[in-house]
Amino acid sequence: MKDPNKSNVITGQMLKQMIEDILNDYSLPAEPVGTEDPPELLEQKKSKIQIASQLINTMSDEERNQLFSHYKRFPWETLLARFSEMKTAEKGAK
Fold this sequence. Notes:
Elements: H1 12-25, H2 39-43, H3 48-58, H4 61-70, H5 76-93
């Protein structure tokens, strides 16, 4: 039977002690040892697309436009501007 005088509330200190007890039971280090990286960072390899996307995101608008125009790729604003110019030219020709 539960003791009515005992509280069921877990304090931060109690939680910390429980975690430390578990780590000690399984002999797990709480922090990486030395210059050791977490395992997921060692195993995770970035694809070329991820690397390129990160680099593109760090570029200024001018650098990005220069890169994409080199490969004949243009932003939506350019496409919409060309459509607008075509509409204006059609209206002028009539």
